[in-house]
Amino acid sequence: MHALGTRTVETRTLAGAERVGHEFFYRSRLRTLGGAREPRALMRLGRIGAVTVGDVVFHDDIAMVCGELQTAYHVNVPLRGALASRHGDTRMVATPRRAAVYPPHGETVLERWPAGTRIVCLKIDRHAVDERLAALLGRPVRGPVAVAPALALNGAGRTFARIARLLAGELRPEGGLAATTLGAAALSDCLIDAFLMTTGHPEREALEADAPPCLPRAVRLAVELIEASPAAPLTAAELARRVHVSARSLQRGFARHLGTSPMEYLRDVRLQRAREELRRAAPGETTVAAVAAAWGFAHLGRFAVTYRERFGEPPSATLRASG
């Protein structure tokens, strides 16, 4: 996905600012905090790969209620000024030295965005973050990841801020690297990797550690069997038989080296393959029920619930988006 719908918008109404925010970010409610009846704002916005980027400044003090972000992690990087916000019960003030980070779940409220405060707003696709983290760790990850509310913009965080500004700089009519599919993917991947390496979260230490040793032979062979034929009617006992160990030994191996069980690993692979098929489907080509059945999910209702928990949206929404 390359840079899409890059726009520069100057608005002087609450309704206009809310409409643009909903188009690119979230459905939110705005209000002015000063004497102005309507806020003036200048926004440059666009989508670069898995990241939606906004370079935004309001010329009047405003507050914004965003609700739950659901499908995204969000980072606000002030270039000048300060932003007071709340996520759930946690309050913080973002400055050019400290970015604010909001996870997908829990109400997000920007309590005071002062006039003249310029912010690079980054809406990072939740699935892209969770899937990249799993790839870096070499094991499944149950998202969303519990991220810390602040990201210090010194040390390694300074690099994250530079990448954020780079993406904001790509929001120009004449286009740049982000105007190409490969370029947009590379830029968004770079930001996601920097996000995972600089934001506080439970897997941060594992990311910074040396690469783990190779998996034991039985676990590696079982993973290969699952990845090769996830739609096959595999059971823990059958997997253990085919890799020549006991079911209990295989369970212990998966728990120790992958942090999951063979059946949970199989379910996660099936969910990912189902998601890929739903994303690829042409309009009218298939149904959620058909995809669920093809990947071994016999109960459609349970599939829908599990899918939403894993990806933050119902499978029907993924299928509609593919068209």
Q: How does this structure look, described?
A:
- With 323 residues, this protein is of the alpha+beta class.
- It folds into two domains: 4-207, Jelly Rolls (Sandwich), CATH 2.60.120; 217-322, Homeodomain-like (Arc Repressor Mutant, subunit A, Orthogonal Bundle).
- It has helices at 14-24, 126-137, 156-169, 181-198, 204-208, 217-228, 236-242, 247-258, 262-280, 288-294, 300-311, 315-322; strands at 4-11, 29-32, 41-48, 51-58, 62-67, 72-80, 83-87, 90-94, 98-102, 108-113, 118-125, 150-152.
- Strands 1-3-4-11-6-9-12 form a seven-stranded antiparallel β-sheet, sandwiched between helices. Strands 2-5-10-7-8 form a five-stranded antiparallel β-sheet, covered by helices on one side.
Report the helical percentage.
40-55%
Strand content: 15-25%
Main β-sheet: number of strands, strand sense, barrel status?
A: 7 strands, antiparallel
Q: Please tell me what the overall shape is.
A: elongated
- Whole-Å distance between the termini? 14 Å
How many helix segments? 12
Order of helices and strands: EHEEEEEEEEEEHEHHHHHHHHHH
* Quaternary form: single chain
Query: What average pLDDT do the residues reach?
Result: 89
